[in-house]
Specification:
Blueprint: E1 3-10, H1 16-26, H2 32-41, H3 60-65, E2 72-77, E3 82-87, H4 95-102, E4 107-113, H5 120-131, E5 136-142, H6 151-165, E6 172-177, H7 201-207, H8 211-215, E7 220-222, E8 225-227, E9 239-246, E10 248-250, E11 254-258, E12 262-271, E13 274-276, E14 278-280, E15 284-289, E16 300-303, E17 309-320, E18 331-336, E19 339-353, E20 358-361, E21 371-384, E22 395-400, E23 406-412
Parallel strand pairs: 1-3, 1-4, 4-5, 5-6
Antiparallel strand pairs: 2-3, 7-9, 7-16, 8-9, 9-15, 10-14, 11-12, 11-16, 12-13, 12-15, 17-21, 17-23, 18-19, 18-22, 19-20, 19-21, 22-23
Length: 421
């Protein structure tokens, strides 16, 4: 399935919800009944037009305040591709919400108000996008109609953003001038900006290639369930079920099982209860191995010539998502895909000021929305890859042992003390 997950982020009133509404409306992805309801609710809109932001700001509290609070997910498709949109809140106190929405994003749309240019919230959301390793960034310079569609304004904002983004090391960065309210360069090319020869936003979203980053070359498979029917006709059946996180598995491959480190080979692969010669990410599959090894939920099966990091020491960037403080000595459950182990916070190297990218060394504790570089010690070895290499195997969450609340979302880093974003 040709699917793109993307997130919209930016400051309050930059037009994120209107932009998503325009994408849905102009691509004919709004059903007639919803469109009629939005038209009724837009009767008091200045100018008498349709308030497209109502397509995403679905919570009553959000509509009353005129802002986005939670991450709103929307789905639509075109003949070329299917899309999942995450509309992230713009306020600083909802940083954790943006991290949640961006964790699986292939692309980020950073909205900039053409009247105000690059501001603090632009830098904050750009830094989070870089931290989470989102491979494709489109800077949408919105409300160009409010600056008379000026090419000089556009060029100035591009230069300001590029100067800031040099330290973020984005892999793919494009700039698109637009007006979400008027529809300029969202779905159709704008006649008001003949000086812009690039793609419209929808064309960019339909054509951006995310295959390599999403599935990677490293073969990673984590066991979710061990299938042992023990029936008369399947007495010796033993299959290891899970989703292929990245890469390709083929019958006959030599594989290594972690954390034990034992090596064996694949004798059969099943997909949808049919035996196949190979399977690839993100397919769910059942692997059969030549040897009867001690394998349970959470065990990782990888190619023997392409091994992950295996360690009880994990260095990570954390985003605190709950009010429970996180400090040195804190004990939690660490859930890494199917694996759950106990973990203790051994060190907090620094807290990151997301506005200035300044590192505040050794904070006493971490509170909700804080971003920090920490070292964790787990009760059992984990097999993982740095998040920058493999987003599927480099992410985890911390869970409070007693309340079972999710305390933090984490991304694994290379095991070195002086890691720099």
């Amino acid at each position: 399935m040709n699917l793109l997950r993307f997130i919209t982020c930016g400051s309050v009133d930059d037009g994120k919800s209107t932009l998503i509404g325009r994408l849905l409306y102009d691509s004919h992805a709004v059903s007639p009944d919803i469109l009629q309801a939005i038209e009724r609710q837009s009767r008091n809109t200045p100018g008498g037009g349709i308030d497209l932001s109502l397509l995403t700001d679905g919570l009553r509290s959000e509509r009353e305040q005129g802002i986005t609070i939670d991450v709103a997910y929307k789905y639509f498709s075109t003949p070329r591709r299917k899309f999942i949109i995450a509309d992230a809140p713009g306020h600083v106190q909802y940083t954790r919400n943006m991290v949640t929405g961006a964790s699986n994003a292939d692309c980020a749309l950073i909205l900039v108000d053409a009247r105000h240019g690059v501001i603090e919230q632009t830098r904050r959301h750009s830094a989070i996008a870089a931290l989470l390793g989102i491979p494709h960034i489109a800077v949408c310079i919105n409300k160009m109609d409010m600056v008379a569609y000026s090419a000089k304004v556009f060029d100035r904002i591009v230069a300001d953003y590029q100067a800031f983004a040099q330290q973020l090391n984005f892999k793919d960065l494009v700039f698109i001038p637009m007006s979400a309210l008027s529809g300029d360069n969202v779905v159709e090319p704008s006649k008001n900006m003949p000086w812009y020869a690039g793609a419209t936003l929808l064309h960019y979203l339909e054509t951006v290639d995310v295959t390599a980053e999403r599935y990677g070359k490293d073969a990673r498979f984590q066991v979710q369930y061990v299938i042992r029917p023990k029936s008369d006709d399947l007495h010796d059946y033993r299959g290891y079920a899970g989703q292929i996180q990245s890469g390709v598995y083929r019958k006959g491959d030599r594989v290594t099982v972690f954390p034990s480190g034992l090596t064996t080979s694949i004798t059969a692969i099943e997909v949808h209860q049919q035996e196949v010669e190979e399977a690839f990410a993100p397919q769910p599959a059942v692997l059969h191995l030549a040897d009867d090894l001690d394998i349970s939920r959470g065990v990782t099966i990888v190619h023997s010539d392409d091994l992950p990091t295996v360690s009880q020491d994990v260095e990570a960037m954390l985003c605190i998502t709950d009010g429970a403080p996180v400090r040195v000595g804190g004990r939690f459950l660490l859930q890494h895909n199917s694996a759950t182990v106990k973990a203790i916070v051994k060190d907090v190297y620094y807290k990151l000021d997301i506005n200035t990218l300044e590192k505040i060394p050794q904070p006493h504790n971490l509170a909700i929305n804080d971003l920090a570089h920490v070292r964790l010690r787990t009760s059992e070895p984990l097999s993982f890859d740095p998040y920058a290499i493999n987003r599927k195997t480099g992410a985890f969450i911390l869970i409070h042992e007693n309340t079972c609340q999710t305390v933090a979302a984490g991304i694994m880093q290379k095991i070195e003390p002086d890691y720099v974003i």
